[in-house]
């Protein structure tokens, strides 16, 4: 009989063992080997049987075993030590506690989190990054509160049909069987968050609390009895279908998320966040809720509240693929935020304006969550330098009139959490050979002078572990696909612990080109089966359940890998998740990545491989574009200027084969008399020494704290001071400037008489402007100057603010200055007027600029 309700009965631990529950309920165990060792000691056989999931371990361990442990003095001592160590980790001052001016706390919103495979609340890179961000914040003592949704069906687990088609299963989760506790009021009743809906009652949600080291994480869950069945399903799965379902999820995440934080701070006394960080557009509605609060509770007008809220908001965009941006029909957003559900404090027409693509090339029928995110955040960034550049182009329409380089979108390159992704053996080797690495994070260069013998031994251990585990997974997969015992005996010898191993694992959207390596199947066969320098390839990846094309790619790979002649050298391992990911990035010698440049915003799996002593073989995209240096791996040449996709794939695949045959395999199999691949090890050591400090998430989170969170907190404080006087003044100023702006004109520009000046001379410029009623203090009049290209565009202009505003006739003003001519060659300048206010984050922020009527104002000359 099938159960109609399912729940988990929690074990009651004997008194001496109660600290075990404390340890299990803090997810720090997901990156702390000593704690995992302790869990294993509870019952080694069961630990294996429950897939290293501590909650299941405690749920299934026998009372007799617990009674025995309760009297085991050695175990109790270890338990006490571990609990004490955790408490020390949770309370001791860390890096953040010595930083000046930092926010009292920061709220971090993300639709998904990859913390551990036991909490399948992630689909790919965005979630893994969010998980690594929280863990690293914890390690550094950054007071972040994570906010997300709890999906009752996590992301799907993947298996294969007999003919290699992806099958999906959505195992239900029971929050009581997870390391979560329900957030409760002081009187013990569960906290309820409510958000208004246009019809029926409000949507209710309860709030689960996870502890990620020092970081509390709040997960909203709509599966509560007060809700109608359809409302209970709002958080049923990650990225619910289209339209209403997804919009409701995002309303719950953004609006409900802020309300959950307020409840959490009220109950626990936690400091209220000064900065709100939106990890991608999905959580953007949080800005609306903060505006509502400020209007309702502080009496601000909408525009004033907008200034106050956006000053403390950071928005990170994660995709350079326009189709990857979250958009809703305007009409749908209008329906949910208007009519009977309209909040007087947040009028629906203001909301619609925030998400409008009202710039050239925009689609007037959609509501764009990224565009809203950028309007609601004073600080915006992409996730690698290249992605920052691509984003400035992609969203440049929001700052019309400014050069792409001036579009106020910066970048912080992603990083990865070492504790989660670096093999224990490598961590221990580092602790033995270069203790400063573990203690202070310094001394990376010392690795260059080590012989590398130990490193090579550990690499062998990790490769062997990958091979053994891959065989286990392969056997299981073939059994599921209907193969008999006899048909799987070949798997005992599948893959080889001594063969050069290439890993390729990722989600399967078309831009990642899962099957590029199969462009020329005969050549791939030759590479795999080369008698002197064989290569083996381990592949994993999930296609989005609705992506038939992606599933076909997986099937193509699986069919190729099923062939008898190559199946011992190329394998597809189903169900790519954090556990499989860790196994692969630790065990592979080479991490391959061949996206269509520049569609990979950053990518992080290659960073994980690098930290484990793997080498990257990748198209110059995302982070690799920034940090490939010719010695730390190989770059697959990209034909990204080429319009014909087939031709482009042909060229890039041919280059990939050639690199593997002539460089990767040759270097790997070139051994000295001791059997060591000298040149290979040089490359590995160089990779760890130079990339190590950059790819760590500690670098990333410090960058966020120093370049975004701290300045945002400063701006937010300036807005809030004196009863929000700053926000009121800035809003009034922006309104006045925007109204007057159509009257701001550059009337006349006069350059110095000498048309072929020398390097080192100074070129006097005089400009007459009409400020349309604005004061000189409201604007900056600037000269942009520098080298010009053949079309008279100033390349990477420098800016000089002109001073000495003098009255000219008709209420106009005359400005003057001197341009330094610092270089020879074609040179040009132009003039502009932009708004200027000390509380703007940069010149382009209001998106207003007045330029001289082209081509007037340009003096080109050849400098000698
Ligand atoms: C690291 C990781 C990702 C993200 O890696 P990309 O390089 O962006 O593809 C996705 N899924 C899992 C399971 C990971 O471990």
TrEMBL record:
Organism whose genome encodes this protein: Actinomadura sediminis
Listed NCBIfam families: more_P_ylases
UniProt protein name: glycogen phosphorylase
Highest rank taxon of the organism: Bacteria
Described purpose of this protein according to its UniProt entry: Phosphorylase is an important allosteric enzyme in carbohydrate metabolism. Enzymes from different sources differ in their regulatory mechanisms and in their natural substrates. However, all known phosphorylases share catalytic and structural properties.
InterPro entries per record: Agluc_phsphrylas, Glyco_trans_35, Glycogen/Maltodextrin_Phosph, Glycogen_phosphorylase_DUF3417, Pyridoxal_P_attach_site
Pfam families linked to this entry: DUF3417, Phosphorylase
Statement: the UniProt record of this protein carries the keyword Cytoplasm: no
Keywords noted in UniProt: Allosteric enzyme, Carbohydrate metabolism, Glycosyltransferase, Pyridoxal phosphate, Transferase
Domain DUF3417 intervals: 13-119
Broad class of enzyme this protein falls into: transferase
Catalytic activity, as annotated: [(1->4)-alpha-D-glucosyl](n) + phosphate = [(1->4)-alpha-D-glucosyl](n-1) + alpha-D-glucose 1-phosphate
Required cofactor(s): pyridoxal 5'-phosphate
Enzyme Commission designation: 2.4.1.1
Gene that encodes the chain: glgP
Keyword Transmembrane: no
Region span, Disordered: 844-864
Family indicated by similarity: Belongs to the glycogen phosphorylase family.
């Amino acid at each position: 009989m099938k159960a109609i309700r399912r729940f988990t009965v929690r074990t009651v631990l004997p008194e001496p063992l109660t600290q075990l529950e404390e340890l299990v309920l803090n997810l720090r165990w997901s990156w702390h080997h000593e704690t995992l060792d302790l869990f294993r000691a509870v019952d080694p056989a069961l630990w294996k049987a429950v897939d290293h999931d501590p909650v299941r371990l405690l749920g299934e361990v026998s009372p007799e075993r617990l009674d025995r442990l309760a009297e085991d003095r050695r175990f109790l001592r270890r338990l006490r030590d571990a609990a004490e160590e955790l408490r020390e980790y949770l309370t001791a001052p860390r890096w953040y506690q010595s930083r000046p001016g930092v926010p009292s706390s920061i709220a971090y919103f993300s639709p998904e989190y990859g913390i551990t495979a036991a909490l399948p609340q992630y689909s790919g890179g965005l979630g893994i990054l969010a998980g690594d961000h929280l863990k690293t914040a914890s390690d550094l003592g950054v007071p972040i509160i994570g906010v997300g949704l709890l999906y009752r069906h996590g992301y799907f687990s993947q298996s294969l049909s007999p003919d290699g088609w992806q099958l999906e299963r959505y195992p239900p989760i029971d929050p009581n069987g997870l390391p979560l506790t329900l957030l409760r009021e002081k009187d013990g009743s569960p906290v309820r968050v409510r958000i208004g809906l246009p019809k029926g009652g409000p949507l209710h949600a309860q709030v689960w609390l996870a502890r990620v080291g020092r970081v509390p994480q709040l997960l909203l869950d709509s599966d509560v009895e007060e809700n109608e069945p359809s409302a209970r399903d709002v958080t049923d799965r990650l990225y619910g279908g289209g339209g209403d379902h997804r919009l409701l999820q995002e309303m719950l995440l953004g609006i409900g998320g802020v309300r959950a934080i307020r409840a959490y701070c009220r109950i626990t006394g936690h400091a209220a966040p000064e900065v709100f960080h939106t990890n991608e557009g999905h959580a953007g509605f949080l800005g609306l809720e903060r505006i509502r609060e400020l209007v309702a509770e502080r009496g601000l007008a909408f525009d004033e509240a907008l200034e106050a809220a956006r000053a403390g908001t950071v928005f990170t965009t994660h995709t350079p693929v326009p189709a990857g941006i979250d958009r809703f029909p305007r009409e749908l957003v209008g329906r949910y935020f208007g009519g009977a559900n309209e909040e007087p404090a947040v009028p629906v027409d203001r909301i619609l304006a925030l998400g409008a693509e009202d710039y050239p090339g925009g689609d007037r029928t959609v509501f764009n969550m990224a565009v809203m995110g950028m309007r609601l955040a004073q600080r915006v960034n992409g996730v690698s330098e290249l992605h920052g550049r691509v984003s400035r182009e992609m969203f440049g329409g929001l700052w019309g009139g400014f050069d792409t380089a001036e579009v106020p979108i910066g970048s912080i390159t992603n990083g990865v959490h070492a504790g989660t992704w670096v093999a224990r053996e490598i961590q221990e080797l580092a602790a033995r050979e270069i203790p400063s690495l573990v203690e202070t994070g310094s001394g990376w260069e010392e690795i260059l002078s080590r012989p590398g013998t130990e490193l090579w031994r550990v690499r062998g251990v990790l490769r062997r572990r990958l091979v053994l585990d891959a065989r286990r997974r392969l056997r299981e997969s073939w059994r599921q696909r209907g193969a008999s015992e006899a048909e799987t005996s070949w798997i005992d010898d599948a893959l080889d612990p001594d063969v050069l191993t290439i890993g390729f694992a990722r989600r399967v959207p078309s831009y990642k080109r899962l099957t590029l390596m199969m462009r020329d199947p005969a050549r791939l066969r030759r590479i795999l089966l080369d008698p002197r320098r064989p290569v083996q390839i381990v592949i994993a990846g999930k296609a989005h359940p609705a992506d038939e094309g992606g599933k076909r790619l997986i099937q193509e790979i699986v069919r190729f890998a099923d062939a008898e002649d190559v199946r011992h050298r190329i394998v597809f391992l189903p169900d790519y998740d954090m556990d499989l990911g860790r196994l692969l990035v630790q065990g592979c010698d080479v991490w391959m990545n061949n996206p269509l440049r520049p569609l990979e915003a950053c990518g992080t799996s290659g960073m994980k491989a690098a930290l484990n002593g793997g080498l990257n073989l990748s198209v110059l995209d995302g982070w690799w574009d920034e940090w490939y240096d010719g010695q730390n791996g190989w770059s697959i040449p990209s034909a990204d200027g080429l319009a014909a996709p087939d031709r482009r794939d042909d060229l890039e695949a041919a280059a990939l084969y050639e690199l593997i045959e002539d460089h990767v395999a040759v270097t790997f199999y070139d051994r000295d008399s001791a059997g060591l691949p000298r040149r290979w090890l040089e490359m590995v050591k160089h990779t760890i020494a130079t990339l190590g400090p950059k790819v760590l998430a500690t670098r990333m989170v410090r960058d966020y704290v120093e370049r975004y969170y701290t300045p945002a907190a400063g701006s937010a404080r300036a807005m809030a001071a004196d009863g929000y006087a700053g926000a009121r003044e800035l809003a009034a100023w922006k309104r006045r400037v925007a109204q007057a702006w159509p009257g701001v004109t550059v009337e006349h520009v006069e350059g110095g008489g000498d048309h072929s000046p020398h390097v080192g001379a100074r070129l006097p410029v005089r400009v007459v402007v009409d400020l349309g009623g604005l004061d000189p203090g409201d604007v900056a009049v600037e000269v942009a100057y520098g080298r010009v290209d053949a079309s008279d565009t100033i390349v990477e202009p420098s800016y000089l603010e002109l001073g000495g505003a003098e009255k000219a006739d008709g209420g106009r003003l005359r400005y003057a200055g001197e341009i330094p001519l610092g270089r020879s060659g074609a040179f040009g300048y132009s003039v502009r007027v932009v708004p200027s206010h000390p509380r703007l984050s940069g010149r382009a922020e209001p998106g207003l600029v007045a330029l001289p009527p082209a081509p007037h104002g340009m003096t080109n000359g050849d400098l000698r």
